[in-house]
């Protein structure tokens, strides 16, 4: 019989699980149990990393027997049915008080369902978003656990020990109950989509309008990475743009097929935001831009459509680069502002007590959107925990305000020249919509009342009203049918 020596176990030893297991094993005093459905992966991991001292299990019974009580296991398998299959097995061999952590990219509503079902057995279930890809899993990811306070108390120390560290603080916090962790991880990924699309639009403008080569643009991004845009995504963009294809001698970016893939978390963010009624337009445009890029038949058919007759030539290239930089920063602020709006709305809908400033803090290292800029978000929520929109916080309002002339020049110039900037343009439109004194929504309400008697409210009187459109067009007081 296996002795219960391991303090934690990992189920699923593909790239993420094996790296996380190695990370856990590398911490002082940790013995880690490992299990994978097909034993070959377990054997390969053991052979490649004898230094980790893994306790390998061939089945779930052995796995459970190797774990000290209360048992804690992290599942790192393909999200969806495989996760359910593993949970079903673990529930058979675990006992009340044990903890099952799902570290995969689960849809948060699945996590809510799973947490409820597993709780009935007395076992704790924790959905934990883990960001940072394979490198993060190995060296320190940003971890977003949900689940009960009791489970957090028990597993918090070990998660803190393996998380990335930013300014001396581990990038992990108890996000909220049940699906809160996976919800916040989903929003993180949505923001990541927006950030990447905005960077791609900046690159496209620098290339097509500024006339810079990929290597020159790499230098521009490297320079931007020393200022307020400093972030992992800006840093890796410079690296990608500097890369030369060995086979052709061309910049690698020129030989990569221009069809962007997606694994679904961006779409989930937008779907959830639609349900919550939160405009995450920057994120939505980023998801749609990938969809458009991946529709080759439509793109081929549309090649013959008229282009712009305007050309956009810039006399002062330095000023143009600065305009693009400012437009990028302002649009990025909007993407984060919208992402945090979705977090606030999700917290209200699902009864989660999410500390926005803490979320910004745990994204400062380990994850894909890591950036110094996140400190500003933490500060904004520290100054005003009830802040209604991030973009209205003094620092961000100033930053967007000073970027505004550049932002408008870039969006207008791109529209005239026929260069697509869906994320830049929608972010600017969102900004103008948000700050508008009066919106054409009044007309929409009038239309809704006309065809569907949906009623409207007035600016000058309390109450709900309807115009008798097919009668004498007089106005009556009505029951609210919004
Ligand atoms: N945070 C990030 O940056 C990031 C990056 C990548 C992935 N992820 C998430 O992390 C998780 C693991 O990702 P990954 O790329 O390492 O692996 P993956 O390719 O998503 O999944 C492969 C693993 O799932 C196991 N598996 C599949 N179906 C199973 C089933 N029915 N029962 C038991 N095990 C099953 C496989 O076992 P076999 O070897 O037996 O087939 C293998 O261990 C996923 O949820 C993924 O979405 C996160």
From TrEMBL:
The keyword Cell division does not apply. Substrate binds at residues 105, 131-133, 188-189, 193, 263, 290, 448, 454. Its EC number is 1.1.1.44. One of its GO terms (molecular function) is NADP binding. Residues 181-470 form the 6-phosphogluconate dehydrogenase C-terminal domain. Catalyzes the oxidative decarboxylation of 6-phosphogluconate to ribulose 5-phosphate and CO(2), with concomitant reduction of NADP to NADPH. This is 6-phosphogluconate dehydrogenase, decarboxylating.
């Amino acid at each position: 019989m296996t002795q219960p020596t391991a303090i934690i176990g990992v189920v699923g030893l593909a790239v993420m699980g094996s790296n996380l297991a190695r990370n856990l094993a590398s911490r002082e005093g940790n013995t880690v149990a490992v299990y994978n459905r097909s034993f070959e992966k377990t054997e390969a991991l053991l052979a490649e990393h004898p230094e980790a001292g893994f306790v390998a299990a061939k089945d779930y019974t052995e796995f459970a027997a190797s774990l000290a009580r209360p048992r804690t296991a992290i599942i790192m398998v393909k999200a969806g049915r495989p996760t359910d299959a593993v949970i079903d097995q673990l529930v058979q061999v675990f006992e009340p008080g044990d903890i099952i952590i799902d570290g995969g990219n689960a849809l948060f509503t699945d996590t809510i369902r799973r947490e409820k079902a597993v709780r009935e057995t007395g076992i704790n279930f924790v959905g934990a978003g883990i960001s940072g890809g394979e490198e993060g899993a190995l060296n320190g990811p940003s971890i977003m656990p949900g689940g009960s306070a009791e489970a957090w108390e028990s597993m918090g120390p070990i998660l803190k020990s393996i998380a990335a560290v930013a300014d001396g603080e581990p990038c992990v916090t108890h996000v909220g109950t049940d699906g809160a962790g996976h919800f916040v991880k989903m929003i993180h990924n949505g923001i990541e989509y927006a950030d990447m699309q905005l960077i791609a639009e900046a690159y496209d403008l620098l290339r097509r309008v500024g006339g810079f080569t990929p290597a020159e643009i790499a230098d521009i991004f490297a320079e931007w990475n020393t200022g307020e845009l400093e972030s992992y995504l800006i840093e890796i963009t410079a690296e990608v743009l500097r890369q030369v294809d060995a086979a052709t001698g061309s910049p690698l970016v020129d030989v990569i097929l221009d069809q962007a893939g997606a694994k679904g978390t961006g779409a989930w963010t937008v779907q959830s935001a639609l349900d919550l009624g939160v405009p995450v337009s920057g994120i939505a445009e980023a998801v749609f831009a990938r969809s458009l890029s991946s529709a080759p038949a439509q793109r081929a058919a549309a090649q013959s459509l008229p282009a712009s007759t305007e050309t956009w030539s810039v006399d002062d290239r330095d000023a143009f680069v600065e305009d693009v930089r400012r437009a990028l920063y302002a649009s990025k602020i909007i993407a984060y502002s919208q992402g945090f709006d979705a977090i606030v709305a999700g917290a209200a809908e699902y009864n989660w007590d999410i500390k926005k400033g803490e979320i910004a803090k745990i994204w400062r290292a380990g994850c894909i959107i890591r950036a110094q800029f996140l400190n500003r978000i933490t500060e904004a929520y520290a100054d005003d925990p009830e802040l209604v929109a991030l973009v209205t916080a003094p620092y961000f309002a100033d930053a967007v305000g000073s970027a505004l002339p550049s932002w408008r020049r870039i969006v207008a110039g791109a529209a005239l020249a026929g260069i697509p900037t869906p994320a830049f343009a929608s972010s600017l439109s969102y900004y103008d919509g948000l700050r508008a004194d009066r919106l054409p929504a009044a007309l929409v309400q009038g239309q809704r009342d006309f065809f569907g008697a949906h009623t409207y409210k007035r600016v000058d009187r309390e109450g709900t009203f309807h115009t008798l459109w097919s009668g004498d067009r007089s106005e009556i007081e009505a029951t609210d049918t919004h």
